[in-house]
Specification:
The protein contains eleven helices and ten strands.
């Protein structure tokens, strides 16, 4: 389905404020509220558009591991779908001809509880021939920072009109209520399923009053402990070729290189990791020729990158939020 300026403007608006009322988005786009609501429903049904609320991992006491699994061809899809159904995974992808599975695994930042997937489940799963786990040390691009290929529609004035409430200037760790607690788990789970769930729905999920829900949402968002991401088929924006890039960078130049990569329009994610490679990025390009040009010209100019491995992404089985229905199988 082709996207017009209204579709693109709506998606850009949701990146700015995932819970912005349709009426406010309509005013900024210069269309009716009914038009925005209708476009949102169509994009949700046909393009997988969804807003998901996500806790900041650091403030929620969570660690993130980027896990690479090499599997036999007949078992890779089943393993990818099994990983996607777990509550402690996100961004499950099939790559490298369909024999590699890449996933983000969320674990407690300290202690052994909840690490069964890394320490027990994966090594004992039949069909896996190789495993590597890379701790995500720092994210330079991704999370609340959207891929620029989807946020290049609205002008500066429109962006100001849609900007969510300003975050507090104080260090978030010193602000009361900045860190999610066990009491917030029902709220966070509901927002992960649907970041645009109404106050009444969130009240029902938490057992709180709508006023308490609104107050808690405001506190978590103001400090950055909660942010909203937008899921949508990137192919609709012309990104039909995707690849994960695993780079080895001189440690003294890592910060400089990763910061520079985070400004590249071709990248949607850049992070520093542990492991044999220490920088990973997710490239989105119009076609293989564009990916080749990016690798040889833009990355080729970064002399501090000593080695580069490219893993083409065939399909995203699970994005940031939990599955809302079993993923469609392909032969």
């Amino acid at each position: 389905m082709p996207l017009d300026e209204i579709d693109r403007g709506l998606i850009h608006a949701l990146h700015l404020d995932g819970r912005a009322p349709f009426s406010r988005i309509a005013e900024v786009l210069g269309v009716s509220t009914q038009t925005v609501a209708r476009r949102y429903r169509r994009l949700s049904a046909e393009a997988g558009l969804r807003v998901v609320g996500l806790p900041d991992p650091h403030r929620a006491g969570r660690a993130q591991w980027l896990v690479r699994l090499t599997a036999t061809p007949h078992s890779a899809q089943d393993l990818a779908h099994a990983l996607a159904r777990r509550s402690d995974t996100s961004w499950v992808k099939l790559a490298s001809g369909g024999t590699e599975i890449i996933a983000v695994v969320h674990t407690p930042a300290s202690g052994a509880d909840g690490r069964s997937l890394l320490l027990h489940d994966i090594p004992r799963t039949a069909g896996i021939t190789a495993v590597s786990a890379h701790y995500l040390l720092h994210t330079y691009l991704g999370g609340p920072t959207a891929w620029r290929g989807r946020v290049n529609v609205l002008d500066a004035r429109q962006r100001r009109q849609l900007a969510p409430p300003e975050r507090q200037n104080a260090d978030a760790t010193s602000v009361p209520g900045a860190t999610p607690t066990d009491d917030d788990q029902a709220l966070l789970a509901a927002l992960q399923r649907d970041g645009r769930a109404g106050q009444a729905e969130l009240a029902a999920a938490t057992g709180w009053s709508p006023t308490t829900v609104a107050r808690r949402l405001t506190a978590l968002r103001a400090t950055g402990a909660l942010f909203f991401d937008v899921e949508c088929d990137v192919a609709l924006f012309g990104a039909t070729t995707q690849a994960l890039l695993w780079m080895t960078v001189a440690p003294a130049r890592l910060e400089q290189v990763a910061t520079a990569l985070a400004r590249h329009d071709e990248l949607a994610f850049v992070a520093a990791t542990t492991g044999r490679t220490n920088v990973v990025a997710h490239a989105l390009c119009p076609d293989p020729a564009a990916l080749h040009h990016y690798l040889t010209h833009r990355l080729g100019g970064q002399r501090a990158i000593h080695a580069l491995e490219t893993a083409p992404v065939l399909r995203t089985v699970k994005a940031a939020g939990p599955l809302v229905r079993p993923p469609r199988r392909t032969s």
